[in-house]
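Quick question, first post here. What does this chain look like in 3D?
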Amino acid sequence: MPRYLLARVGQAVLVLWAAFTITFLILYALPGDAVSLLLGEDGENNLTAEQLDAVRVQYGLDLPLYQQYLNRLGGLLTGDLGMSYASNRPVADLIAEAIPQTAQIAFAGLALGVTLGAAIAIAATYTRFAWLSRLLTAIPPLGVAVPSFWLGLMLLQVVSFRYGLLPAMGNEGLASIVLPAITLAIPNAATVAQLLNKGLETTLGQPYIETARAKGASRRRVHLRHALRNAALPTLTLAGLMVGGVLGGSVVTETVFSRAGLGRLTATSVSARDVPTVLGIVVIAAAVYVVVNLIVDLVYPLVDPRVVTTRRRTPIGRATTAIPTPEGAST
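> Answer (accepted):
Ran it through. Tokens below.
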């Protein structure tokens, strides 16, 4: 287990470094001069060439690209995310102010999406009515096909503007979380429902399910205890991957609902080519993503005790992975 954890932590560090490096290179490959974007067209025209050079020196933009990269990377390793070009404030402070707003809708969207998707999949495979099962199975593809921004705009139009049931924008109170959370939850719920529904259908046809029925297990026990436990493993993996999707989707959702969160800060920082702020956001988002997926890996054995951590040889050396043991085999 310690070697498994060390390997996973090493992978997490590699992901963070790759995210930081790729983002840095993409931002510097964008067209335009960073000083011009910082000062604006009027500010640039009002300064002399010497003053513009002084601005470049102030922000370290006169240094070679590799030196700027090493300075940024060194600052990250020491916990210094730098100063925002756009607001001239510490990037850590900007992110700390934005994270709670995004965390609220992200957590609510994930929880609602997983719960709703699981409920649809379980109901579709548990019901005795074929027409109801077909109806529930047809819902997830529709949810996947609906764009998030369109869904958000429709919720605003109907729920907020037409009936005035919930606030259309802002960050105040639980009521302001409902519509953004639903906007994030619907695509996730549809994906979870599709995957879990397919897993349940496959698992319910396995021989050990027939054995459980032959031993007198109730229909509900077979469905929820035996079939759902096995079918939930791919869905658990998907739930970890959905964290990245939710963080990315928050850019659109917070823009639609005018929430001052991490997504909106990302959009404005990219527009202003605010390199320190964008790099800080990417690193924080990547850190959240890898930590959540590490937790998901560690939760596997709790969901299904047959899943054990073992090592196996691969053509390129020893690797650590989690694999299910055969039914009834000793772990």
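The mean pLDDT is 79.
Residues 219-256 form the longest helix (38 residues).
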